[in-house]
From TrEMBL:
Enzyme class: ligase
Binding residues for Mg(2+): V547, H549, V552
Name of the protein this chain belongs to: Acetyl-coenzyme A synthetase
Reactions this protein catalyses: acetate + ATP + CoA = acetyl-CoA + AMP + diphosphate
Keyword ATP-binding (UniProt): yes
Length: 657
């Protein structure tokens, strides 16, 4: 494993700085909470399959009940075999047919200040019409639909319409480049693309249709394109006759009713691409019954959702957090899910707090990066607003440092709100390690304990459980309903990536330690994945992109720790003969990466060097570069072909600092 020594070291440092503060659930919170005691854990430990089955029966609507709860041929899982259901029916129809029909399902705030409320009845109407639009464009059960949109209500409408007719969707984050979109459409083999004219971002326009056109030039499987009008201008892009259709025109002609299809519990629901340790993004496949149960129950218990709550998850639906905890989990519960289109500092740095005040948000779920950014902006911004409606706070995406946790607790929660630090991944589909806020005493910086029914362990290189507080690798030791089923089109890589390091157990790629109370402390990725502001990027993908630039011979990319973003990208670049380092070239390379992958991947710093440290098997020793970038004593250098290369980089680096 690449950075085993790194884990051990982090573990040792962490153990010295043991966090002593404890926050038991406030009694008034506990009294009202959905889960008040340890019963769910006890039930799940007696029989985890019976536990999940009990809630699948009580919480979800099935057209046909399953014959078998779980078939586990490690690493292949099937949940609720023989059962038939529809995710869209569970998220929309059953509420639209109940007293909730006039309840707000989606409350949407546009970046320019416009807003919309869709009740469950409204959502039911829109989703049925759009499902008919999909059918009229030739989309059938099993066909893949790619979606490249910003945070507009039509995005969940499109997703739910796909789920309704059994067409797996593949949402591509609207901040991705046309190259990234092209790769994802090609891998999924999508038949249809749904996009919009443009998206608002800090008052300017992201020309989504134009970017989509560039991608589509190399995507022969896409037959038709639906374009939503959001900004009212196509930013120069043309509608292609016979291929492109306006959303509103298709909807005007669509039939009003479309039944939700009874789908097999293992029917593919969606593919979502995430970065792995190689350059090629992995298409994570989630299916129907198990996924819905996982996101339903975690939404209900972790966020303690009540019918009167206004719940707001600030993530983008282009990431799994938005799929599971803006769309499927909350809507399955009949909750009110708030959605915001834009940036947290537009028009001012209090936009989030203004939204909390405007809608009287009760439950807020956001990222450590945002919290650290808000800390940097200063307490005067939240202090300007009435945040008294908040009763529960959550975080996700990266480790939260205790200082940021305390700031969130004091300046946003005013000491009143429990904080749920939720650990999970695109692959897990659902929250896996988390407090239940009415039961579990929290410790700032720890995601605490596994959700009922989930089993996790920290193991050493050999796969043996680590003693308390020793750093090791985080593994999951039991199948769970929302787990990924495979990589789209690449089952071998699925086995290789997660199940070969510790056979029979799922390897998360994260380092962790477990303390004497059984609380998990996640220390971050131990593989070639960087986590910038909660966004997962592959070192190798960024390196390949740099090397594709005409001036670059070789590149090594590392994530160095950053006080706000968690990690920032540093690139070490070797130029081809005939090119000279310059400020201009540095800027050009940074923009090159932003343009080819996404602005998220733009390196914070680029360092020109004559050579890179390599092992005898020609592997770049990224961890040594990280030691340099973070000003640490160099780790083991004995496997290097030429240690002098490293000394030279270190000397130059320190000179330029
Ligand atoms: C990686 C997964 C799951 C939604 C967002 C990211 C890191 C996630 C936590 C947390 C420490 C966390 C891990 C994980 N991570 N949540 N609460 N504490 N680290 O999804 O892009 O699939 O990334 O994010 O490193 O492996 P993702």
């Amino acid at each position: 494993m690449a950075n085993g020594d790194n884990v051990a070291r982090t573990g040792a440092i962490e153990a010295l700085l043991v966090e002593q503060r404890r926050f038991p659930p406030p009694p008034e919170f506990r009294e009202q909470a959905r889960v008040k005691d340890r019963t769910p854990w006890e039930e799940a430990e007696r029989d985890f399959q019976a536990f999940w089955a009990k809630h699948a029966e009580a919480e979800l609507h099935w057209f046909r009940k399953w014959d078998q709860v779980l078939e586990w041929n490690a690493p292949w899982a099937k949940w609720f075999i023989g059962g038939q259901l529809n995710v869209c029916y569970n998220c929309v129809d059953r509420h639209a047919q109940s007293w909730r029909r006039t309840k707000a399902a989606i409350v949407w705030e546009g970046e320019p200040g416009d807003s919309r409320v869709l009740t469950y009845q409204d959502l039911h109407r829109e989703v049925q019409r759009f499902a008919n639009v999909l059918k009229s464009l030739g989309v059938q059960r099993g066909d893949r639909v790619s979606i490249y949109m910003g945070m507009v209500p039509e995005l969940p409408i499109a997703m739910l319409a796909c789920a309704r007719i059994g067409a797996p969707h593949s949402v591509v984050f609207g901040g991705f480049s046309s190259d990234a979109l092209r790769d994802r459409i090609q891998d999924a083999g999508a038949k249809l693309l749904i996009t919009q004219d443009g998206a608002w971002r800090r008052g300017s326009i992201v020309p989504l249709k134009q970017l989509a056109d560039r991608a589509l030039a190399e995507c022969p499987t896409v037959e038709k394109v639906v374009v939503l009008r959001r900004i009212g201008a196509t930013a120069g892009a043309q509608m292609v006759e016979g291929r492109d259709f306006w959303w509103d025109e298709l909807m005007a002609d669509a039939a009003p009713t479309c039944p939700a299809e009874a789908l097999d519990s293992e029917h593919p629901l969606y593919i979502l691409y995430t970065s792995g340790t190689t350059g090629k993004p992995k298409g994570i496949l989630h299916t129907t019954g198990g996924y819905l149960l996982g996101v339903h129950l975690t939404s209900k218990w972790v966020f303690d959702l009540k019918d009167e709550d206004y719940y707001w998850c600030t993530a983008d639906i282009g990431w799994v957090t938005g799929h599971s905890y803006i769309v499927y989990g909350p809507l399955s519960n009949g909750a009110t899910s708030v959605m915001y289109e834009g940036a947290p500092d537009w028009p001012e740095k209090d936009r989030y707090w203004q939204i909390v005040e405007k809608y009287r948000i009760n439950v807020l779920y956001t990222s450590p990066t945002f919290i650290r950014t808000a800390m940097k902006w200063g307490t005067e911004w939240p202090a300007k607003h009435d945040l008294s409606s908040l009763r529960l706070l959550g975080t996700v995406g990266e480790p939260i440092n205790p200082e940021a946790w305390m700031w969130y607790h004091e300046h946003i929660g005013h000491g009143r709100c429990p904080i749920v630090d939720t650990w999970w991944q695109t692959e897990t589909g659902m929250i896996m390690i988390t407090p239940l806020p009415g039961v579990v005493t929290t410790k700032p910086g720890s995601a605490t304990i596994p959700f009922p029914g989930v089993q996790a362990e920290v193991v050493d290189e050999e796969g043996n459980p680590c003693p308390p507080n020793a750093g090791g690798f985080l593994v999951l030791t039991r199948p769970w309903p929302a787990m990924l089923r495979t990589f789209w089109g690449d089952p071998d890589r699925y086995v290789q990536t997660y199940w070969s390091r510790f056979p029979g157990r799922y390897f998360t790629g994260d380092g962790a330690r477990k303390d004497e109370d059984g609380y998990f402390w996640i220390t971050g990725r131990v593989d070639d994945v960087v986590n910038v502001a909660g966004h997962r990027l592959s070192n190798i993908e960024i390196e390949s992109t740099l090397v594709a630039h005409p001036a670059v011979a070789e590149a090594a990319v590392i994530g160095r720790s950053d006080p706000v973003k968690g990690q920032a990208i540093s690139a070490f670049v070797v130029l081809k003969a005939g090119f000279r380092p310059s400020e201009q070239l540095r800027d050009e390379l940074r923009e090159w990466v932003a343009d080819k992958i996404s602005p998220i991947a733009r390196p914070s710093d680029i360092f020109f060097t004559a050579d890179l440290p390599k092992t005898r098997s020609a592997k770049i020793m990224r961890r040594l570069l990280r030691d340099i970038a973070e000003g640490r004593v160099l780790g083991d250098t004995t496997t290097l072909t030429d240690p002098a290369v490293l000394e030279e980089i270190k000397r130059q680096y320190e000179e330029t600092e």
